[in-house]
Q: What sequence folds into this?
């Protein structure tokens, strides 16, 4: 999604001098931060845009190979993509950085390192005009403070173990690296399949019953997938690059039990972070997220079996059945509907332009370190 939006933004910046000379601003556009990851998604990018086709060809790197994260700090960044981005941030010291993401199932939302007053109202208007549901209880920001409907404050990084880092983004990141320069980072999420219920901010009828069902389902799905992985793994020794596909599988299966416990109101152990007050939107997001972890794992296992060129474990029919069943639950149980690519890109571009205008005001009002007068920085 980000690549399509970047091209749209480039066209607008070239066509409208108010976005460049008129704003005393330069746009620096990075078409893709993770070319290896994008290459591995080429199986579904041309379509057809069905959930089943997407899941069977989806790829996201394991946590330690995602370029935005700095679990050991900027000085220890291992990926060349990460080092390149950090170098650009240190050179340009931008007043605004936008990280463009696609949400597979759910709604649109924004995460900010600084408050941009008024962005929530802009977001509501843009989403309404384009028919994009706003995610009022985003799982990514479950424990983060809200800055308005569907706008969340990214907390400062802190020391954390791997599980906390994966589930809470509690480590240093390229989002926070330019914070020292006064940079506002906006992580703009645009949905591929929209779910209307993620915009329902009403109190739930039976919070605990839904949480029990979500936790029970996640435990059950995790058990099935662990059994399938145990059958498949011995046959992957000769599969080229199997480790790349196994890394995210192992990540997902690592975090699932802890998430099920954290969401279960009847768990014996008190969770490290008690759940905040939950709306219907939060519960829908948790249901979507639990199933997403299972579906991504099943899709990656499906790719591993296909890459092996044979199925000695007899796992492919079971994986196909699970993927079809779980996709149907998204479609029929959650009402997931495809949002055309052009509309996704238009939504994301408009949100970026709104953040650009508001961040410009923020930059003029808050001089960066060593600046004697409020000026906008490229």
A:
């Amino acid at each position: 999604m980000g690549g399509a939006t970047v091209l749209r933004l480039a066209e607008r910046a070239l066509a409208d001098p108010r976005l460049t000379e008129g704003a005393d601003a330069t746009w620096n556009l990075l078409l893709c931060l993770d070319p290896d990851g994008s290459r591995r998604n080429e199986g579904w990018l041309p379509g057809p845009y069905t959930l089943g086709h997407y899941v069977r060809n989806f790829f996201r790197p394991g946590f330690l190979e995602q370029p935005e994260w700095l679990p050991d700090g900027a000085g220890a960044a291992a990926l060349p993509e990460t080092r390149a981005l950090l170098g650009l941030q240190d050179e340009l010291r931008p007043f605004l950085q936008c990280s463009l993401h696609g949400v597979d199932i759910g709604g649109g939302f924004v995460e900010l390192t600084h408050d941009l007053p008024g962005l929530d109202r802009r977001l509501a208007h843009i989403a309404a005009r384009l028919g994009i549901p706003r995610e009022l209880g985003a799982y990514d920001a479950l424990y983060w403070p809200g800055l308005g409907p569907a706008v969340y404050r990214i907390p400062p990084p802190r020391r954390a173990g791997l599980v906390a880092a994966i589930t809470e983004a509690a480590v240093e990141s390229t989002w926070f690296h330019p914070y020292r320069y006064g940079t506002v980072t906006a992580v703009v999420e645009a949905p591929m399949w929209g779910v209307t219920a993620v915009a329902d901010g009403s109190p739930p009828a039976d919070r605990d019953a839904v949480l029990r069902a979500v936790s029970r389902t996640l435990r059950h799905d995790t058990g099935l997938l662990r059994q399938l992985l145990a059958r498949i793994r011995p046959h992957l020794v000769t599969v080229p690059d199997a480790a790349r596909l196994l890394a995210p599988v192992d990540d997902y299966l690592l975090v699932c039990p802890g998430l099920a416990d954290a969401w279960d109101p009847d768990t014996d152990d008190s969770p490290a972070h008690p759940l905040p007050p939950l709306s219907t939107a939060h519960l829908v997001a948790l249901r979507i997220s639990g199933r997403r972890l299972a579906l991504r794992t099943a899709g990656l296992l499906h790719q591993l079996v296909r890459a092996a060129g044979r199925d000695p474990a007899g796992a492919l029919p079971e994986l196909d059945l699970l993927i079809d069943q779980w996709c149907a639950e998204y479609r029929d149980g959650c009402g997931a509907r495809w949002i055309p690519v052009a509309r996704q890109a238009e939504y994301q571009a408009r949100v970026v332009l709104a953040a650009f205008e508001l961040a410009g005001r923020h930059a003029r009002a808050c001089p960066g370190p060593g600046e004697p007068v409020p000026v906008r920085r490229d």
User: Anything to note?
Assistant: Residues 42 and 57 are 8 Å apart (CA to CA). The chain has a mean pLDDT of 92. The radius of gyration is 21 Å.
